[in-house]
Amino acid sequence: MNVFIIGVGLIGGSFARDIKRTQPNVRIFGVDANPNHLEEALSLSIIDEKADYSLLPQADLVIVCIPVDVMVRELPLILDAVNDEAVVMDAGSTKSLICKTLVNHDKRRNFLACHPIAGTEFSGPSAAIEGLYKGKTNIICEIEKTAFKLQERALDLFQQLGMRIRYMNPEAHDKHIAYVSHLSHISSFMLGKTVIDKERNERDIFDMAGSGFESTVRLAKSSPAMWTPIFKQNKENVIETLGEYIGNLETFKQMLEADDYEGIYDEMNNTNKIKGILNGIPLNK
Amino acid sequence: MNVFIIGVGLIGGSFARDIKRTQPNVRIFGVDANPNHLEEALSLSIIDEKADYSLLPQADLVIVCIPVDVMVRELPLILDAVNDEAVVMDAGSTKSLICKTLVNHDKRRNFLACHPIAGTEFSGPSAAIEGLYKGKTNIICEIEKTAFKLQERALDLFQQLGMRIRYMNPEAHDKHIAYVSHLSHISSFMLGKTVIDKERNERDIFDMAGSGFESTVRLAKSSPAMWTPIFKQNKENVIETLGEYIGNLETFKQMLEADDYEGIYDEMNNTNKIKGILNGIPLNK
Fold first, then answer.
1. Prephenate/arogenate dehydrogenase domain: which residues (chains A, B) (predicted)?
2. What is the CA angle A134-A136-A141, rounded to 5?
3. Are B256 and A239 in contact (CB under 8 A)?
């Protein structure tokens, strides 16, 4: 089986590592706009061969793991180039625009819209790790638009990687993911900014910050090149969640200003139930 | 050496475990308003003996690890009860009101104001862990007000526990800690609230949330009984940091509404430097 990984960073590289481990007769071709990343992926044995789109007709499976703005530009070209039996899947954090872009493509049946909910705050080929997808959820959109035989091939792979599958329409995906992923990133980035702006003397932060702060700002290490187009494509949902978050923070601040400590206690106590909700989340680290 | 732990939860219990491990000739007395916690601490061998204030005259070292509102009420009584050679230290997350409360106490020289920057989101005796303080920062306020011999005894202990010491005045402590600790907790609690409020069907959160969300809302599992009085005592600083955080989130939202993706990229890119700042933070998990 010839597998093409378009974008050999954290997400694509981790797919490559797991596919190599679980499927012995596989040849992994890497494609990347950054020649250094491609070289690095080769030297780390993440890919077997450097490639470009001219080799795509040989592909049985193509996994596209690039920023979502580049995704909507490149996916039609990738589908143009593959053969009729190939399955092309993406790993984008947004789904509506990607699905809309391909709705009338001649090879729509060759495409499977995916969002594997997995990752770390790091990026590039060196961030790729084995087992990243084990126990993680893969959200698949518009499954009915993919050819049945190709669905099967993709689902077999996800099963071998240990992923749990959930089906959802692209609009529901983008709405829910704004709350549980996109908002977390903004909250974390702005927390990091607030503290950096105030504490010019970084030594003070370093000395006083504990693991709680580190946990809360971890996502502020994420790649702006990856996240700017996500926020752009999911603008309406993100603005809505952000508005609600700001409203809740304002209410908390007003309770503090009004010395309403009973209200503050209740707010925190009610939110403690996140414990039970989180207990089921498969964690990476 | 007789060590009294007042409040045998995560913080006090972890002190007890480490002191027992590093100092063989020690007897640990536990005091707690919650008889179940005291019983649990005894059965977990965190303490050697249940005690109350009537035994305090036997104490060589007293570590007070209780919510900061109870702290300002109890610390004067504890100091009243100890002998002239005892050192009493606290582990409160605020320092100004505690230091002000004791400024004219007859035994002010027996008191050392501390804030060990360590912990997890869990609480109670069962949350106590060995080595919690290793490599962590302990902020000491108004060191000059503590008797020299007693300073020495406390610093020896911190050294054996592997802690790094930083000296700071109580006002500077409360101002800085609002940014790197108190704000993180509010940010996390309100993020948890926003998502819970929106996503009534918890199954959807569970399925779509990844390790990023878990990391960002981890602190929303923290104890409201512990945190409400912290926010109350540090009200002015917390309101200031919260105002700045809300302002930054508002700016981000406005940039999104104005399609200013270059601005959004720059904000995230500038905040990425948190990586370098965080690299030095000793982590728990």
1. 1-285
2. 125
3. yes
ipTM for the predicted complex? 0.90
CA distances from A109 to A60, A112, A151, B64, B168 (A): 14, 8, 9, 66, 65
Mean pLDDT of chain B: 93
A2-169: CATH topology: Rossmann fold (3.40.50)
Given a contact cutoff of 8 angstroms between Cβ atoms, the answer to whether B59 and B78 are in contact is no
Q: Which residues have a Cβ under 8 Å from the Cβ of A244 and sit 6 or more positions away?
A: B194, B197, B198
pLDDT digits 0-9 by tens, A171-208: 999 999 999 999 999 999 999 999 988 877 666 666 78
Strand partners, A49: A29
Instruction: Tell me which residues of chain B, numbers 233 to 272, contact chain A at a CB-CB cutoff of 8 Å.
Output: 235, 238-239, 241-246, 248-250, 252-253, 256-257, 259, 261, 264-272
- Output the CATH code of domain B173-278: 1.10.3660.10
- Give the residue extent of every domain in chain B: 2-169, 173-278
Size of interface A-B (CB pairs under 8 A): 313
From the list B193, B221, B275, the residue facing A275 with the nearest CB is B221
* A47 in Cβ contact with A17 (< 8 Å): no
A contacts of B231 (beta carbons < 8 Å)? 256, 261, 264
Distances (CA, A) of B58 to B62, B149, B152, B262: 10, 18, 19, 66
* Least Cα separation, residue A131 to chain B (angstroms): 14
Whether chain A has a CB inside 8 Å of the CB on B149: the answer is no
Residues of chain B with pLDDT under 50: 282-285
Say if residues B268 and A189 touch (Cβ distance below 8 Å). yes
Q: Do A281 and B209 touch (CB under 8 A)?
A: yes
